[in-house]
TrEMBL record:
Organism: Klenkia marina
Origin: domain of life: Bacteria
Name this polypeptide is given: Zinc/manganese transport system ATP-binding protein
Record-annotated ABC transporter domain positions: 13-246
PROSITE patterns, per database record: ABC_TRANSPORTER_1, ABC_TRANSPORTER_2
Keywords: ATP-binding, Nucleotide-binding, Transport
Amino acid sequence: MTTGSPSETPPALVLDGVSVVRGGRTVWDEGTLTVPAGAVVGVIGPNGAGKTTLFQLALGLLPAATGRIEVLGGAPRRGNRRIGYVPQNYTAALGEAVRARDLVMLGLTGNRFGVRRATPDERARVDDALRRVGAAGYADRRMSELSGGQQQRVAIAQAIVDDADLLLLDEPLANLDLRNSQEIVTLLGELRRERAVTIMVVAHDLNPLLPVLTDAVYLLDGHPHHDVIGEVVTEDLLTHLYGTRVRVVRTAQGDLFTRSG
Ligand SMILES: Nc1ncnc2c1ncn2[C@@H]1O[C@H](COP(=O)(O)OP(=O)(O)OP(=O)(O)O)[C@@H](O)[C@H]1O
């Protein structure tokens, strides 16, 4: 299946017979899948199934025990600037005093933060990223003064400031209320429309993301799989995946949502 990307664009992620071991234990194995460029992908599975581990493999932070991994057409490597990453609980772990625009600047200057002055071009790119996520109005405020939704926007600005082709977002909707969560989902849809960026999102609650998801990677019985979203949001698959009864409901308006029980 393709997601409308030009044929010369390599897939965002390819796993070929990949297994991963942590602390002497196989987290998952037999990973063979292709995530097409331009997809918006929900990464789902129960706690501890290895969703964050998949991101760490793609980022070159963790080696595969077996098999071959390809990210944006090349081998995974640390510090790949074509990937924008927002770790789980990222904003909570930040230094209190950092200003929003300085955090975004880190996405361009890496660990050289504070060592040299940013160039005018870098400052313009930071302003542009803040504007694209709707955070320009609080660019000079400290992260500790921002709400969870505002902090998440700034974190996404940092991930996109260097024009990443692949965004890896680990639970970007955690701790957000309904409105903020919907706004972040709308933002992801806009980012995808602006440029053919591929977005992979770890999520425990699929519902807020369903309007924008095109695909899913799901960790079932110790193996990662990929499919288009319509094939994954089924009662049988989700019930098996989470080990609890999940219902899939389609409203008269055509909206799809899942609920337990
Ligand atoms: N640094 C580590 N050293 C050893 N084992 C680890 C390490 N980090 C994670 N693990 C183990 O790897 C497995 C997968 O963890 P991972 O964080 O990828 O799961 P996850 O699906 O993202 O979970 P959650 O939904 O709870 O965030 C778990 O069994 C976890 O205990």
